[in-house]
Amino acid sequence: MNGNGGGEGCVKMEECKKAVVYMWGYLPGASPEKSPIASPMAVKLPDPIQAEESWNNICGGGCGFAMAISGSGKLITWGSTEDESQIYLTSGKHGETPEAFPLPSEASVVMAAAGWAHCVSVTEKGEVYTWGWRECLPSGKVICDLGSFQTETIGKESSMLTEQVSPKSQGSTLTGGIVFQLDSQKNGEEVVKRRKTSHAKQEPDSPVTSEEFFMVSPCLVNLGSGVRITTVAAGGRHTLALSDMGQVWGWGYGGEGQLGLGSRVKMVSTPNVIPCIEQPATGKDIASAVSQNNKIPSLQVSNVPGSYVKDIACGGRHSAIVTDAGALLTFGWGLYGQCGQGGTYDQLRPTCVNSLLGVKVNKIAAGLWHTLCVSVDGGVYAFGGNQFGQLGTGVDQAE
């Protein structure tokens, strides 16, 4: 499931005379007593909607809710419960009954994805809308690291988020984007103390969610004039977007290198182009440099097969892309081998998975601790964490 960023519920669409969507996994608002759905169960649209709508596609859901797209291009969400706080708001307060999620644009939705508590969608016009945790959203201003906030308020998700922090994370800088980082452990401790003090001063009945930390209404992502997005992927706290020109944009949390910018920058609140494939210097570039008495640029020939990116995926804290030549590149958190580089270290820039250079990769998907890819020949390759048998190798050991 591409770009689910660790979502625990699954959906499947069956092609027939009229498409049927099945769901299973953790969707508390759609199951009796909030228990996990162990076997695939058909999702039924409400009668008023069903009379006019059909299923068109399914999307990677978030933690505790599902997403799909209707035949008319509406985003449909369901599966959450009111006591899920931010997650309930992210899903549009849609529980057992699938309902259309209101977006500012009337343009049809062609794709959507969700992270732990943020969502992103793409319209047929190539526009991108996003909502949820503000730390995951582009804003054009500095956004502070909400690590301590989410630990204090998210409840059942907090232990999972805490365990996923890589011990290798450290402060770093980045030019060209608006960023925030903790310069030292001491600074981080001070932030935690301030937040705990502020939290203690709140009235007992004051709501946890506020506009300061959470955005319920979808906002339009400004990527500049002429940029048309075709595909999006949502990680735990970061987002990737692929343009029709094969260019990858990224924003959100990047502490393990999942934004591919060569740094452990904590937060990027302005969309940045991720340098995935180096382009060789052209004759025009060389002529321009000579005419201006500048040093002739060296010919940079990329060692990455391909000329543009055709597919993207986000895991919890890592990312993966595929080029038009079928090369697989990964970057981000590597503690469980999910980057496929033969080790457990983080990758700060998009790096070719050399063990698959002889394989032409067609599609990719990334989970919380593992990565999957499908070759043009139909072969399935998996690597990363295997604690729950998610690699499908028949054992529960890391691969």
Summarize this structure briefly.
The chain is 12% helix and 33% strand.
What is the terminal separation in angstroms? 19 Å
Number of alpha- plus pi-helical segments: 6
The percent range for strand residues is: 25-35%
| Class inferred from helices and paired strands | mainly beta
Order of the strands making up the biggest sheet: 11-16-15-14-13
Verbal overview:
The chain is mostly beta strands and 399 residues long. It is 12% helix and 33% strand. The chain has helices spanning 47-50, 86-90, 147-153, 158-163, 185-200, 283-291; strands at residues 9-14, 20-25, 37-42, 55-62, 65-70, 75-78, 99-100, 109-114, 118-123, 128-133, 179-180, 214-220, 229-234, 238-243, 248-253, 267-273, 309-314, 318-323, 328-332, 347-352, 361-366, 370-375, 380-384. The strands form 6 sheets. The protein has a 5-stranded antiparallel beta sheet with strand order 11-16-15-14-13, with no helix packed on it. β4 (55-62) and β5 form a beta hairpin. The longest helix is centred in the middle third of the chain and has 16 residues, at 185-200. The chain is globular and about 55 Å long. The chain starts with 8 loop residues before the first strand and ends in a 15-residue tail after the last strand.
